[in-house]
Design a protein that fits this description.
Elements lengths: L1 H11 L19 H6 L6 H21 L3 H34 L17 H17 L8 H21 L6 H18 L6 E2 L4 E2 L1 H22 L3 H7 L4 H5 L4 H21 L4 H21 L5 H30 L5
Antiparallel strand pairs: 1-2
Helix pairs in contact: 3-4, 3-7, 3-8, 3-13, 4-5, 4-6, 6-7, 7-8, 8-11, 8-13, 11-12, 12-13
Main location: membrane
InterPro entries: Prenyltransferase, UbiA_prenyltransferase, UbiA_prenylTrfase_CS, UbiA_sf
Pathway: Secondary metabolite biosynthesis; terpenoid biosynthesis
Length: 334
């Protein structure tokens, strides 16, 4: 019995949307369900959304040799936008997923399944966050209409994502597209258009970075999905974990190879320095290799640890590598 309670307590902290500790203890009780809906503690969701934007910002800064103040402005703008965007998509996901969440041990005490927030209130909360997110498009560099057009694929993919598990096993690919669209939005925030509609041109360096981000998401979110594998099999929803069960590691290794090649192509295309190759393709491949080798997919605690650390490790290597390359390009050290 004690072991079962410990397991349940552990699951509550594995991004289940029902955290209560830390600074949340100081909030009015009626605020708590809304903070839980938005995944503000721990703030993993915010960085899941922002980090791909940071990839795009830094890549565009390298290409355009952007001024540091412009990079700082774009980063601050998209970090703030990511806060509201993360709120909106997490609330939307919980709203659509509520009937499924009520049947899953890790998520059954989220605010909507436990009836702490009504579906109507959740929808209005999500809509308010989405509207605030949209307002940031007015402050981005470039033409407003074009910026809005660039945002559409991300909006569509996020809207569809909570339904994906009902239609396909490749839900992690859908999530990868939705999250990685941040690479595109980060790029346009500094004037790098991945697709020049009028000229009919595609920026292939941005596309390979976008592809690497999708594959990375597919790995870490699949590891995350194994926490709920038994429940998902019983309920009948789709994921890569459900499709491949415990034979997924060869798929992971294939995705690692694609990521390494894409990041290598990016370096070659942009004529990056050796530091980039050591940190970005090298560090990313090493960290993902450790993750794929060591994660115990049958152990929820191991899945949570490697999901969290796999995200921060790879995201950190790519951001730091691109940042150092940008500083080299603008001769920051001279």
């Amino acid at each position: 019995m004690a072991s079962s309670e410990a397991t349940n307590a552990s699951l509550a902290y594995q991004y289940g949307g029902n955290h209560k500790g830390g600074w949340l203890a100081y909030l009015p009780e009626e605020w708590l369900p809304y903070v839980q809906l938005a995944r503000l503690s721990p703030p993993v969701g915010l960085f899941l959304v922002f980090i791909p934007h940071a990839f795009g910002i830094l890549h565009a800064a390298i290409r355009n040799q952007s001024a540091p103040l412009d990079v700082a402005r774009a980063s601050g703008l998209l970090f703030a936008a990511s806060f509201f965007y993360s709120n909106a998509v997490h609330i939307w996901n919980d709203l659509i997923d509520a009937p499924i969440d009520s049947k899953v041990q890790r998520t059954r005490k989220r605010p909507i399944p436990r009836r702490a927030v009504s579906p109507r209130a959740a929808f209005l909360f999500a809509a308010s966050q989405a509207l605030v997110t949209g307002s940031f498009l007015f402050f981005m560099e470039g033409n407003l209409v074009e910026n809005c057009l660039y945002a559409v694929p991300g909006i569509i993919s996020w809207t569809y994502y909570p339904y994906a598990k009902l239609h396909t096993f490749w839900t992690q690919a859908v999530l990868g597209f939705a999250l990685s669209w941040g690479v595109v939005m980060g790029s346009i925030s500094l004037g790098l258009r991945p697709v020049a509609y009028k000229a009919g041109q595609v920026d292939f360096a941005t596309i390979v970075l976008f592809t690497a981000s999708i594959c990375w998401t597919m790995i870490y979110d699949s590891v995350y999905a194994y926490q709920d594998l038994a429940d998902d099999l019983q309920i009948g929803v789709g994921s890569m974990a459900v499709l491949f069960r415990y034979q997924i590691k060869p798929i992971f290794w294939s995705l690692v190879a694609v990521i390494t090649v894409c990041l290598g192509i990016l370096g070659r295309w942009e004529e990056m320095s050796p530091v980039y190759y050591i940190l970005v393709p090298g560090g990313t491949t090493l960290w993902l290799g450790l993750m794929v080798t060591n994660v115990n997919l049958a152990d929820s605690g191991s899945c949570w640890w490697w999901f969290s650390n796999g995200f921060w490790g790879v995201g950190g290597f790519i951001v730091v590598g691109l940042l150092l390359e940008y500083l080299r390009i603008i001769r920051f050290w001279n």
